[in-house]
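Structure in, sequence out. Go:
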């Protein structure tokens, strides 16, 4: 079973993440997709993160709202040593779920930083990688310039980020239409990001 791995802080998950997940499944020919909620990104150590369980809950709510049995949420990185390194996550998935073949999804901005990733050469040699465009990417990637096992996916560009959503909430602005409805209600109810 081919399993797409979409890792992130999801602080909070937003409609761009959802649209991207759907595009990833279709274009990469996946059987399923896992939103892997990360407790700590080694390259974003100074970022203040909402509690792990709250971010996991919101991601699960968003996926429940989708009602697509192919799309799941994983807390696998919560049970791994910190900081979370993607190579460890991928290798753990293969060890614990031998019927799964992980395919990694990363943004163009992360691809540009990919040489800084821990054991990036191991990831490249063992796993397929799909790269999606980011609005703030400095240049457009070309398939012919990518290493073997890497491919581009065409995904809708969303000019919104989790950082902007947190700022909007803190400023009392509406985030309706930017996040799934259940996530919007949860943020209001729990008074998150204020």
């Amino acid at each position: 079973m081919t399993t797409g791995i979409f890792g992130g802080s999801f602080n909070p998950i937003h409609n761009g993440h959802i649209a991207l997940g759907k595009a990833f499944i279709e274009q990469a020919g996946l059987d399923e997709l896992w939103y892997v909620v990360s407790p700590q990104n080694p390259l974003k150590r100074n970022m203040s993160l909402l509690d792990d369980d709250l971010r996991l809950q919101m991601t699960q709510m968003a996926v429940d709202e989708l009602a697509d049995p192919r799309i799941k949420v994983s807390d696998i990185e919560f049970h791994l040593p910190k900081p979370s390194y993607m190579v460890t996550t991928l290798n753990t998935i293969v060890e614990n779920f031998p019927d799964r073949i992980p395919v990694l999804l990363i943004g163009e901005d992360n691809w540009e930083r990919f040489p800084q990733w821990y054991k990036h050469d191991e990831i490249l040699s063992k796993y397929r990688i799909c790269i999606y465009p980011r609005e703030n990417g400095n240049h457009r990637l070309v398939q012919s310039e990518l290493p073997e096992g890497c491919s581009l996916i065409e995904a809708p560009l969303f000019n919104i980020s989790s950082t902007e959503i947190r700022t909007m909430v803190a400023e009392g602005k509406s985030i309706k239409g930017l996040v799934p409805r259940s996530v919007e209600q949860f943020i209001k109810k729990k008074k998150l990001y204020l």
